[in-house]
Amino acid sequence: MSAQVAPEVHLADLIAALGGDLIGEAQTRISRIAPLDEADGQTISFLANPRYQAQLAQTNAACVIVAPAFAEAAAKRGEKGGEKGGERGGAVIVTPDPYLYFARLTQWWAARSRPLGAARIHPSAVVDPSARLGAGVDVGPLAVIEAEAEIGDGARIGAHCVIAQGARIGAGTRLAARVTVGFGCELGQRCIVHSGVVIGADGFGFAPNFKSEQPGWEKIEQLGNVRIGNDVEIGANTCIDRGALADTVLEDGVKLDNLIQIAHNVQIGRHTAIAGCAAIAGSTKIGAFCTIGGAANVVGHLVLADHVHVSAATLISRSISQPGQYSGVYPFEDNASWEKNAATLRQLHSLRTRLRDLEKKNT
Q: Can 264 be counted among the known catalytic residues?
Protein backbone atom coordinates (compact mmCIF):
# COMPACT_ATOMS: atom_id res chain seq x y z
CA MET A 1 0.00 0.00 0.00
CA SER A 2 1.60 3.28 -1.05
CA ALA A 3 1.50 6.36 1.13
CA GLN A 4 -1.31 8.84 0.65
CA VAL A 5 -0.26 12.49 0.90
CA ALA A 6 -2.51 15.45 1.65
CA PRO A 7 -2.20 18.86 3.27
CA GLU A 8 -1.14 18.59 6.91
CA VAL A 9 -3.84 18.00 9.49
CA HIS A 10 -3.82 17.82 13.25
CA LEU A 11 -5.00 14.75 15.15
CA ALA A 12 -7.59 16.97 16.81
CA ASP A 13 -9.23 17.51 13.40
CA LEU A 14 -9.20 13.80 12.68
CA ILE A 15 -10.69 12.87 16.06
CA ALA A 16 -13.39 15.51 15.64
CA ALA A 17 -14.37 13.98 12.31
CA LEU A 18 -14.01 10.25 13.05
CA GLY A 19 -14.03 9.82 16.82
CA GLY A 20 -11.85 7.36 18.73
CA ASP A 21 -9.92 7.70 22.00
CA LEU A 22 -6.71 9.67 21.58
CA ILE A 23 -3.64 8.97 23.69
CA GLY A 24 -1.06 11.66 23.11
CA GLU A 25 -0.82 15.17 21.77
CA ALA A 26 -3.90 16.41 19.90
CA GLN A 27 -1.84 18.94 17.93
CA THR A 28 0.39 16.26 16.40
CA ARG A 29 0.69 17.02 12.69
CA ILE A 30 -0.08 14.33 10.10
CA SER A 31 0.68 14.64 6.39
CA ARG A 32 0.40 11.07 5.10
CA ILE A 33 -1.07 7.60 5.62
CA ALA A 34 1.26 4.63 5.27
CA PRO A 35 1.84 1.08 6.55
CA LEU A 36 3.66 0.59 9.83
CA ASP A 37 6.93 -0.40 8.17
CA GLU A 38 6.96 2.63 5.82
CA ALA A 39 5.91 5.28 8.31
CA ASP A 40 7.85 8.41 9.29
CA GLY A 41 7.35 11.11 11.88
CA GLN A 42 4.36 12.68 10.10
CA THR A 43 2.56 9.46 9.24
CA ILE A 44 -0.58 7.87 10.62
CA SER A 45 -0.74 4.08 10.38
CA PHE A 46 -2.84 1.25 11.81
CA LEU A 47 -2.60 -2.26 13.22
CA ALA A 48 -5.55 -4.45 12.27
CA ASN A 49 -3.91 -7.88 12.02
CA PRO A 50 -2.10 -9.21 15.13
CA ARG A 51 0.44 -10.90 12.83
CA TYR A 52 2.03 -7.48 12.30
CA GLN A 53 2.42 -6.70 15.98
CA ALA A 54 6.21 -6.93 15.65
CA GLN A 55 6.12 -3.96 13.27
CA LEU A 56 4.29 -1.97 15.89
CA ALA A 57 7.34 -2.02 18.19
CA GLN A 58 9.61 -0.63 15.47
CA THR A 59 7.40 1.77 13.55
CA ASN A 60 8.27 5.47 13.36
CA ALA A 61 4.64 6.51 12.81
CA ALA A 62 3.54 9.69 14.56
CA CYS A 63 0.18 8.06 15.30
CA VAL A 64 -1.05 4.48 15.22
CA ILE A 65 -4.66 3.28 15.15
CA VAL A 66 -5.10 0.17 17.30
CA ALA A 67 -7.66 -1.93 19.15
CA PRO A 68 -7.82 -1.61 22.96
CA ALA A 69 -5.74 -4.79 23.42
CA PHE A 70 -2.75 -3.10 21.74
CA ALA A 71 -3.12 0.38 23.21
CA GLU A 72 -0.35 -0.01 25.79
CA ALA A 73 2.09 -1.56 23.34
CA ALA A 74 1.38 1.18 20.81
CA ALA A 75 1.96 3.91 23.40
CA LYS A 76 5.34 2.39 24.33
CA ARG A 77 6.52 1.75 20.79
CA GLY A 78 10.04 2.90 19.97
CA GLU A 79 11.35 2.69 23.54
CA LYS A 80 13.90 0.03 22.57
CA GLY A 81 14.92 1.06 19.10
CA GLY A 82 13.91 2.82 15.94
CA GLU A 83 14.53 6.41 15.03
CA LYS A 84 13.07 7.69 18.28
CA GLY A 85 16.15 6.54 20.20
CA GLY A 86 14.50 5.65 23.47
CA GLU A 87 11.72 8.24 23.48
CA ARG A 88 8.13 7.20 23.94
CA GLY A 89 6.52 6.34 20.70
CA GLY A 90 3.91 8.97 19.94
CA ALA A 91 0.16 9.27 19.64
CA VAL A 92 -2.35 6.43 19.60
CA ILE A 93 -5.97 6.30 18.49
CA VAL A 94 -7.85 3.48 20.21
CA THR A 95 -10.95 2.11 18.50
CA PRO A 96 -12.83 -1.21 18.60
CA ASP A 97 -12.23 -1.90 14.88
CA PRO A 98 -8.99 -0.37 13.55
CA TYR A 99 -9.55 -1.58 10.00
CA LEU A 100 -12.99 0.03 9.83
CA TYR A 101 -11.52 3.21 11.29
CA PHE A 102 -8.77 3.11 8.66
CA ALA A 103 -11.40 2.73 5.90
CA ARG A 104 -13.25 5.80 7.14
CA LEU A 105 -9.97 7.67 7.47
CA THR A 106 -9.19 7.03 3.80
CA GLN A 107 -12.59 8.44 2.83
CA TRP A 108 -12.03 11.56 4.94
CA TRP A 109 -8.49 11.90 3.57
CA ALA A 110 -9.59 11.51 -0.06
CA ALA A 111 -12.23 14.20 0.36
CA ARG A 112 -9.47 16.59 1.45
CA SER A 113 -6.75 15.55 -1.00
CA ARG A 114 -8.93 14.93 -4.09
CA PRO A 115 -11.75 17.45 -3.95
CA LEU A 116 -14.25 17.26 -6.77
CA GLY A 117 -14.30 20.15 -9.20
CA ALA A 118 -17.28 22.36 -9.74
CA ALA A 119 -20.14 20.68 -11.60
CA ARG A 120 -20.52 21.53 -15.27
CA ILE A 121 -21.78 20.15 -18.56
CA HIS A 122 -18.74 19.94 -20.81
CA PRO A 123 -19.27 21.65 -24.18
CA SER A 124 -18.37 18.45 -26.05
CA ALA A 125 -20.95 16.33 -24.21
CA VAL A 126 -24.11 15.36 -26.12
CA VAL A 127 -27.23 15.61 -23.97
CA ASP A 128 -30.61 14.91 -25.54
CA PRO A 129 -33.13 17.68 -24.85
CA SER A 130 -35.55 15.18 -23.32
CA ALA A 131 -33.00 13.93 -20.77
CA ARG A 132 -33.63 15.12 -17.20
CA LEU A 133 -30.60 16.23 -15.20
CA GLY A 134 -30.87 17.12 -11.51
CA ALA A 135 -29.14 19.92 -9.66
CA GLY A 136 -25.36 19.89 -9.60
CA VAL A 137 -24.89 17.13 -12.18
CA ASP A 138 -21.42 17.01 -13.75
CA VAL A 139 -21.05 15.66 -17.30
CA GLY A 140 -17.54 15.12 -18.66
CA PRO A 141 -16.07 15.54 -22.16
CA LEU A 142 -17.63 13.53 -24.99
CA ALA A 143 -20.21 11.88 -22.76
CA VAL A 144 -23.54 10.97 -24.34
CA ILE A 145 -26.87 11.12 -22.50
CA GLU A 146 -29.70 9.85 -24.65
CA ALA A 147 -33.42 10.58 -24.75
CA GLU A 148 -35.52 10.26 -21.58
CA ALA A 149 -32.50 9.41 -19.42
CA GLU A 150 -32.66 10.65 -15.82
CA ILE A 151 -29.63 11.77 -13.82
CA GLY A 152 -30.11 12.50 -10.10
CA ASP A 153 -28.85 15.46 -8.13
CA GLY A 154 -25.09 15.65 -7.72
CA ALA A 155 -24.31 12.68 -9.99
CA ARG A 156 -21.07 12.77 -11.94
CA ILE A 157 -20.83 11.31 -15.43
CA GLY A 158 -17.22 10.80 -16.59
CA ALA A 159 -15.67 11.41 -19.97
CA HIS A 160 -16.85 9.19 -22.84
CA CYS A 161 -19.68 7.66 -20.78
CA VAL A 162 -22.86 6.60 -22.54
CA ILE A 163 -26.18 6.76 -20.70
CA ALA A 164 -28.62 5.13 -23.08
CA GLN A 165 -32.26 5.92 -23.66
CA GLY A 166 -34.44 5.77 -20.57
CA ALA A 167 -31.62 4.82 -18.20
CA ARG A 168 -31.73 6.23 -14.67
CA ILE A 169 -28.77 7.26 -12.50
CA GLY A 170 -29.42 8.01 -8.82
CA ALA A 171 -28.37 11.04 -6.84
CA GLY A 172 -24.72 11.22 -5.86
CA THR A 173 -23.66 8.32 -8.09
CA ARG A 174 -20.25 8.62 -9.74
CA LEU A 175 -19.39 7.08 -13.11
CA ALA A 176 -15.71 7.09 -14.10
CA ALA A 177 -14.67 7.48 -17.72
CA ARG A 178 -15.98 5.10 -20.40
CA VAL A 179 -18.89 3.58 -18.51
CA THR A 180 -21.86 2.37 -20.55
CA VAL A 181 -25.33 2.11 -19.03
CA GLY A 182 -27.75 0.42 -21.42
CA PHE A 183 -31.26 1.51 -22.25
CA GLY A 184 -33.75 1.27 -19.43
CA CYS A 185 -31.19 0.24 -16.81
CA GLU A 186 -31.20 1.76 -13.33
CA LEU A 187 -28.52 2.63 -10.77
CA GLY A 188 -29.40 3.76 -7.28
CA GLN A 189 -27.93 6.52 -5.17
CA ARG A 190 -24.27 6.96 -4.15
CA CYS A 191 -22.98 4.20 -6.42
CA ILE A 192 -19.39 4.16 -7.70
CA VAL A 193 -18.80 2.69 -11.16
CA HIS A 194 -15.24 2.40 -12.44
CA SER A 195 -13.92 2.73 -15.97
CA GLY A 196 -14.89 0.26 -18.65
CA VAL A 197 -17.97 -1.10 -16.90
CA VAL A 198 -20.83 -2.18 -19.15
CA ILE A 199 -24.27 -2.35 -17.55
CA GLY A 200 -27.05 -3.75 -19.69
CA ALA A 201 -25.28 -5.60 -22.48
CA ASP A 202 -27.31 -8.46 -23.96
CA GLY A 203 -27.26 -11.67 -22.01
CA PHE A 204 -25.92 -14.79 -23.70
CA GLY A 205 -29.14 -16.26 -25.09
CA PHE A 206 -29.40 -18.35 -28.29
CA ALA A 207 -31.68 -21.16 -29.43
CA PRO A 208 -30.02 -23.96 -31.43
CA ASN A 209 -31.31 -24.27 -34.96
CA PHE A 210 -29.29 -26.93 -36.78
CA LYS A 211 -32.04 -28.77 -38.64
CA SER A 212 -32.97 -26.01 -41.04
CA GLU A 213 -31.49 -25.19 -44.40
CA GLN A 214 -29.50 -22.43 -42.77
CA PRO A 215 -28.28 -24.00 -39.49
CA GLY A 216 -27.00 -21.86 -36.67
CA TRP A 217 -27.93 -20.16 -33.45
CA GLU A 218 -31.13 -18.08 -33.23
CA LYS A 219 -30.72 -15.01 -31.05
CA ILE A 220 -33.07 -14.63 -28.09
CA GLU A 221 -33.67 -10.93 -27.63
CA GLN A 222 -32.92 -9.85 -24.09
CA LEU A 223 -35.98 -7.91 -23.02
CA GLY A 224 -35.23 -7.32 -19.34
CA ASN A 225 -33.15 -4.58 -17.75
CA VAL A 226 -30.58 -4.23 -14.97
CA ARG A 227 -31.62 -2.79 -11.61
CA ILE A 228 -28.89 -1.79 -9.18
CA GLY A 229 -29.55 -0.56 -5.65
CA ASN A 230 -27.95 2.13 -3.52
CA ASP A 231 -24.29 2.27 -2.38
CA VAL A 232 -23.10 -0.31 -4.91
CA GLU A 233 -19.52 -0.24 -6.20
CA ILE A 234 -18.56 -1.89 -9.49
CA GLY A 235 -14.92 -2.47 -10.47
CA ALA A 236 -13.28 -1.70 -13.79
CA ASN A 237 -14.24 -3.67 -16.90
CA THR A 238 -16.96 -5.63 -15.15
CA CYS A 239 -20.00 -6.58 -17.25
CA ILE A 240 -23.55 -6.93 -15.94
CA ASP A 241 -25.93 -8.36 -18.54
CA ARG A 242 -29.55 -7.37 -18.85
CA GLY A 243 -32.20 -9.98 -18.15
CA ALA A 244 -33.75 -12.13 -20.82
CA LEU A 245 -37.30 -11.43 -19.64
CA ALA A 246 -37.11 -10.37 -15.98
CA ASP A 247 -34.38 -8.03 -14.72
CA THR A 248 -30.87 -8.68 -13.49
CA VAL A 249 -30.79 -7.31 -9.92
CA LEU A 250 -28.03 -6.13 -7.57
CA GLU A 251 -29.38 -5.09 -4.18
CA ASP A 252 -28.10 -2.32 -1.90
CA GLY A 253 -24.46 -2.36 -0.84
CA VAL A 254 -23.17 -4.97 -3.29
CA LYS A 255 -19.43 -4.65 -4.04
CA LEU A 256 -17.96 -6.04 -7.27
CA ASP A 257 -14.26 -6.15 -8.11
CA ASN A 258 -12.70 -5.76 -11.56
CA LEU A 259 -13.31 -8.07 -14.53
CA ILE A 260 -16.41 -9.82 -13.20
CA GLN A 261 -19.13 -11.33 -15.39
CA ILE A 262 -22.70 -11.17 -14.09
CA ALA A 263 -24.97 -12.98 -16.53
CA HIS A 264 -28.62 -12.37 -17.37
CA ASN A 265 -31.25 -12.66 -14.65
CA VAL A 266 -28.74 -13.06 -11.84
CA GLN A 267 -29.89 -11.73 -8.47
CA ILE A 268 -27.32 -10.68 -5.87
CA GLY A 269 -28.44 -9.95 -2.31
CA ARG A 270 -27.52 -6.91 -0.26
CA HIS A 271 -23.96 -6.37 0.91
CA THR A 272 -22.53 -9.32 -0.97
CA ALA A 273 -18.95 -8.84 -2.20
CA ILE A 274 -17.38 -10.59 -5.20
CA ALA A 275 -13.63 -10.53 -5.97
CA GLY A 276 -11.99 -10.12 -9.38
CA CYS A 277 -12.40 -12.44 -12.36
CA ALA A 278 -15.35 -14.30 -10.84
CA ALA A 279 -18.22 -15.31 -13.11
CA ILE A 280 -21.86 -15.85 -12.17
CA ALA A 281 -23.89 -17.72 -14.76
CA GLY A 282 -27.47 -16.94 -15.71
CA SER A 283 -30.48 -17.01 -13.36
CA THR A 284 -28.43 -17.74 -10.25
CA LYS A 285 -29.63 -16.19 -6.99
CA ILE A 286 -26.98 -15.23 -4.45
CA GLY A 287 -28.05 -14.30 -0.94
CA ALA A 288 -27.16 -11.37 1.29
CA PHE A 289 -23.82 -10.88 3.06
CA CYS A 290 -22.06 -13.48 0.89
CA THR A 291 -18.46 -13.32 -0.32
CA ILE A 292 -17.13 -14.94 -3.48
CA GLY A 293 -13.37 -15.20 -3.97
CA GLY A 294 -11.39 -14.25 -7.03
CA ALA A 295 -11.74 -16.44 -10.13
CA ALA A 296 -14.56 -18.44 -8.55
CA ASN A 297 -17.39 -19.59 -10.81
CA VAL A 298 -21.04 -20.23 -10.05
CA VAL A 299 -22.99 -22.19 -12.66
CA GLY A 300 -26.47 -21.16 -13.71
CA HIS A 301 -29.89 -21.59 -12.08
CA LEU A 302 -28.51 -22.14 -8.57
CA VAL A 303 -29.50 -20.60 -5.23
CA LEU A 304 -26.92 -19.62 -2.61
CA ALA A 305 -28.17 -18.88 0.90
CA ASP A 306 -27.30 -15.79 2.90
CA HIS A 307 -23.83 -15.72 4.50
CA VAL A 308 -22.26 -18.18 2.07
CA HIS A 309 -18.52 -17.65 1.58
CA VAL A 310 -16.87 -19.15 -1.50
CA SER A 311 -13.09 -19.53 -1.62
CA ALA A 312 -11.02 -18.30 -4.56
CA ALA A 313 -11.03 -20.39 -7.75
CA THR A 314 -13.85 -22.61 -6.49
CA LEU A 315 -16.49 -23.95 -8.88
CA ILE A 316 -19.99 -23.97 -7.36
CA SER A 317 -22.01 -26.50 -9.31
CA ARG A 318 -24.97 -27.07 -6.99
CA SER A 319 -27.15 -24.90 -4.76
CA ILE A 320 -26.04 -24.13 -1.21
CA SER A 321 -28.76 -23.94 1.44
CA GLN A 322 -26.62 -23.49 4.58
CA PRO A 323 -24.33 -20.57 5.53
CA GLY A 324 -20.63 -21.34 5.75
CA GLN A 325 -17.30 -21.47 3.95
CA TYR A 326 -17.13 -23.55 0.76
CA SER A 327 -13.95 -24.47 -1.11
CA GLY A 328 -13.12 -26.62 -4.10
CA VAL A 329 -9.52 -25.82 -4.84
CA TYR A 330 -7.15 -28.73 -5.43
CA PRO A 331 -3.78 -27.65 -3.96
CA PHE A 332 -1.12 -26.98 -6.55
CA GLU A 333 2.18 -28.91 -6.59
CA ASP A 334 5.03 -29.66 -8.97
CA ASN A 335 3.78 -30.81 -12.35
CA ALA A 336 5.11 -34.37 -12.18
CA SER A 337 3.33 -35.00 -8.88
CA TRP A 338 0.17 -33.34 -10.17
CA GLU A 339 0.09 -35.62 -13.24
CA LYS A 340 0.45 -38.73 -11.05
CA ASN A 341 -2.35 -37.61 -8.75
CA ALA A 342 -4.58 -36.64 -11.68
CA ALA A 343 -4.10 -40.12 -13.18
CA THR A 344 -5.09 -41.64 -9.83
CA LEU A 345 -8.18 -39.45 -9.61
CA ARG A 346 -9.34 -40.73 -13.02
CA GLN A 347 -9.31 -44.26 -11.59
CA LEU A 348 -11.30 -43.48 -8.45
CA HIS A 349 -14.60 -44.85 -9.75
CA SER A 350 -13.12 -48.19 -10.82
CA LEU A 351 -11.15 -48.41 -7.57
CA ARG A 352 -14.36 -47.87 -5.63
CA THR A 353 -16.07 -50.64 -7.58
CA ARG A 354 -13.18 -53.04 -6.94
CA LEU A 355 -13.19 -52.17 -3.25
CA ARG A 356 -16.92 -52.86 -2.97
CA ASP A 357 -16.44 -56.22 -4.72
CA LEU A 358 -13.71 -57.14 -2.23
CA GLU A 359 -15.89 -56.12 0.69
CA LYS A 360 -18.70 -58.35 -0.59
CA LYS A 361 -16.33 -61.31 -0.88
CA ASN A 362 -15.17 -60.83 2.68
CA THR A 363 -18.67 -60.67 4.19
A: yes
The pLDDT of 10-33, averaged and rounded, is 96
Q: In what order do the strands lie in the sheet with 63-66?
A: 4-10, 29-33, 43-46, 63-66, 91-94, 21-23
Is residue 121, in this structure, part of any structural domain at all? no
CA distance readout (Å), 7 to 2, 14, 15, 30, 274: 17, 13, 16, 8, 34
Residue 117, pLDDT score? 87
Say if residue 342 is in the same domain as residue 318: no
Mean pLDDT of 200-215: 95
Helix (H) or strand (E) holding 14: helix 11-18
Instruction: Report d(CA 148, CA 152) in Å as an integer.
Output: 13
Q: Output b/e per residue, 187-198; b: 16+ Cβ within 10 A.
A: bbbbbbbbbbbb
Burial category of 207 from C-beta neighbours within 10 Å (exposed 0-12, middle 13-18, buried 19 and up): exposed
Q: Report CA dihedral (304, 180, 193, 229) to the nearest 10 degrees.
A: -50
**Structural domain contains residue 118:** no
- pLDDT single digits (tens) 351-360: 999 999 999 8
What does DSSP say about strands 4-10 and 21-23: parallel, antiparallel, or unpaired?
A: unpaired
Q: By residue range, what is the domain housing residue 77?
A: 4-113
Q: Which of 264, 271, 307, 309 is catalytic?
A: 264
d(CA 245, CA 63): 55
Question: At a CB cut-off of 8 Å and minimum separation 6, what does 304 contact?
Answer: 284, 285, 286, 287, 290, 298, 310, 316, 319, 320
**In a shared domain, residues 152 and 277:** yes
What are 303-360's pLDDT values in tens digits?
999 999 999 999 999 999 999 999 987 777 899 998 998 888 889 999 999 999 999 8
How many residues are present in the chain? 363
CA 338 – CA 354 distance, rounded (Å):
24
Query: H/E element holding 219?
Result: strand 216-219
